[in-house]
Amino acid sequence: MKPLGIGGAWTHTPVVHGDRRGAFLEAFRADGLPRRFDVAQVNCSVSGRGVLRGIHFADVPPGQAKYVMCVSGAVLDVVVDLRVGSPTFGRWETVLLDDEERTATLVAEGLGHGFIALTDRATVMYLCSTPYAPAREHGVHPLDPALGIAWPDGLEPVLSEKDAAAPTLAEALSAGLLPSYRRCEEFYKGAMA
After folding, report:
1. Domain count, the chain
2. Is 126 one of the annotated active-site residues of the chain?
3. Does residue 56 carry a catalytic annotation?
4. What whole-number distance in Å separates Cα of residue 182 and Cα of residue 47?
5. Which of 78, 79, 91, 121 sits at 20 to 30 Å (Cα–Cα) from 149?
6. Using an 8 Å Cβ cutoff, are 72 and 47 in contact?
7. What global pTM score does this model have?
8. What CATH number corresponds to the domain at position 24?
């Protein structure tokens, strides 16, 4: 796995074995991860071009780590450091996930995650370390100018009502919604075993 510039985020591009029949790859392999990852839930979202999902995160502990892959089409995947006190707080990185390279993103607890569909239809699968728990789930507005995420030109973002109503980074910080970097680091120590 290749680390991103935000601690707690990695990418993995598998070897794709192709022949006249098609292709085969190992999309997920737990023993190849830089940390323990227990799969508690698998989500699948199908999105049309321009659909923007996120930026989502969960309270830590227990948080929710995600292993994200695009099985059909293409998305621009985004990881945002929302951990208060982190040296990279507020920073974001993008990764192209598509059905050709088959790159996946591993996102640790406390980091924000989202994506925008680049193709007419994009199917994203993500393995989650904990089940969905609405009371612990939060979001930051993906179009917040203070974040300045470079979403692709030429796409009109389509957001859910929930994501469109999400607070800005400053509002989430002021409301005490964002996770603590120190608390996340303590939590990660158990996940590295």
Report:
1. 1
2. yes
3. yes
4. 35
5. 121
6. no
7. 0.95
8. 2.60.120.10
